[in-house]
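User: When convenient, might I ask for sequence and structure tokens for a protein?

AI:
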Amino acid sequence: MVRLNSSLKNQIGAKIRAYHQSLLNPPVSKERDFVNRTVNAFKNFRPPSSGGQSLSTRSANIDRKPIVDFMPFPRPLSPAFPFDSKKEIGDLLFVYKYFLNNKLVAHRASIVQAKYTRGMRKSWTIDTGQFYLMSYWPCFRVIKPKPRKFKIYDLEPRTRSWATYGFVGPNAIEYPVFFSSQRILSRYSMPKSEHFSFDLSSMPNIWVCTAGYLSKLLQDLIGENLLSNSKVRDFANDLYRIVNLLPDPPGEFEWDDQESEEGKSFGIIEFKVVQEEENKGCWKGKV
């Protein structure tokens, strides 16, 4: 497992605390506000290099959501009712990349669906069809924006827990709170209605993990949401192209539909760690 040195961990920790503090004043007003502020908070963050490692970030967002179409599994896995198989892919994509001697040797990705509630409420309505998609990841294709060639994605069951819900609201001292779809599924069986309610007030304290999500992604690089998988990487690279970010390697995958959608937003935040050449002889990390 790749580890960051203590100096970079401390700098990242301070950055996360400052980001959470920025959500307090003014409070988050809606899902798009949360997405935009998160993208802006981690734009072009480049602390001083330390211990032969350097860290940089880049981020971007677009005024539209990637929409996918998928084929439900047979029962009993799929809900016992018909639902629209065209769903948003989420709101945010966090990506971590580790380069050793100019070679990408480790990557992590986690997609977040943001859910917003007003006031001090701790209950959210979740779309069961999208929850099914984010829990089981059946084969799917992106239908919006429209690709010049349709591409079928099959992320395999072992990638399931990379999908995460981020619950946000005005009470930013406690929120955002992140739960992977698999953790929610372990508490709720697949719902039998179009929507279901997720209520944090009924959750035991052990479920509350606020900053732990980003801390795991950026500092310890471990956790249930952080499976390293080449198919997830390839899909993430295609999402990069939607927001006009250059993936690694660049490749080609073009989109025709570039229309914006009022009130919709999708953002990508990338963290890139490079192990510098001159320190390669004493590098002791493991992948």
User: Anything to note?
Assistant: Residues 6-282 form one domain. The chain has one domain: 6-282. Residues 6-22 form the longest helix (17 residues). The chain is about 25% helix and 25% strand.
